[in-house]
Amino acid sequence: MHMQDGPQLDLSAQVAIVKAKTRPVKAIIELIFAIAAASASGWAHGYFTRFFSATYVVYQIIAAVTAIAFLVFASLATLELSGKARKVLDPVTGTAHAAIVSYAVVLVGALTTLIVTLGLFGVPIGQLVLGGALTSVFVGIAAQQSLSNVFAGIVLLLAHPFRVGDQVRLQAGALGGQIDGTVADIGITYVQMATGGGLRSIPNSQVLNAVVGPLPPPVPEPTGQPLVLHTVVPDPPAADDEPPGDQPSAGPAGPLSGTPQGSPPGAPS
Question: Is the pTM here over 0.70, yes or no?
């Protein structure tokens, strides 16, 4: 059984690898069709000056249909490339970085597709760019807070002051003091932290302006037991350490002393 499971696992792994490698082929094919449709629309547009004219109606239909085909195929290719980029970068750089790359691919692809499609329909792009610039100014003023969160999220992802899973402390006046918790997710607009009160979503602009530091270790709580003081009693001095005055006086002199023991006073020696 073990001899058969090994080749089956290897075969399934090889099939998964082959599928992962062939996924971009769909986006490449859609991009080729989009380029071919744009070329056909440009060729047909060379026979007339503007749409809805009385001449060259067939070429106008061809130009319009191929321009719409370009819009469809280019949009599908953009979405396919965005999804592929996110799947490839997610295990390498993390979900947040992969999301940024995916959004960038969608933004660039959508903007390019829109400009080319409008050019194929004969819309003056210069006036469109001027109108878009004015519109972007008003939109930027209206969405200033949201854009600041987006740019702050990009800065946080590039600077790496903390990572997902780190226990940090955020301290700022805008946060109402300090927030202690574990970083759960770093998004494009919010940072999610798991705190004692639950999951919190903090705007990236406020996190960028806050003081960030590691969470200090918890202080042990008192047990509530009374404090017992132990008195150390010194040991009594040993016998050899007694002072000389405390020793008993010597007894009567023995035979070797100056006065013989038992002889009366005044007797000759």
Answer: no
Q: Which domains does the chain have, with CATH numbers?
A: 10-142 (no CATH), 164-214 (2.30.30.60)
Between 30-39, 198-207, 240-249, the lowest mean confidence (pLDDT) is in: 240-249
CA end-to-end distance (rounded Å), the chain: 123
Amino acid type, 64: A
Residue 152 in contact with residue 193, Cβ under 8 Å?
Answer: no
Cα–Cα distance, 101 to 82 (Å, whole number): 8
**pLDDT tens-digit map of 27-75:** 889 899 999 999 999 898 888 877 887 788 888 899 899 999 999 999 9
- CB neighbours of 44 closer than 8 A, spacing ≥ 6? 59, 60, 62, 63, 66
Max Cα distance, the chain (Å): 176
Distance of CA 220 to the CA centre of its chain: 30
Mapped onto helix, strand or coil, the DSSP state of residue 137 is helix
Which of 99, 149, 98, 118 minimizes the C-alpha distance to 41? Answer: 118
Structure token digits, residue 190: 């919010």
Locate 75 and state its tokens.
Answer: 């949009």
Beta strands in 61-159 (DSSP E): none
CA dist 175 and 169 (Å) reads: 11
Identify the weakest region by mean pLDDT among 51-55, 89-93, 109-113: 89-93
Residue closest to 64 by CA, chosen among 36, 45, 39, 49: 45
Distances (CA, A) of 215 to 49, 184, 193: 69, 15, 13
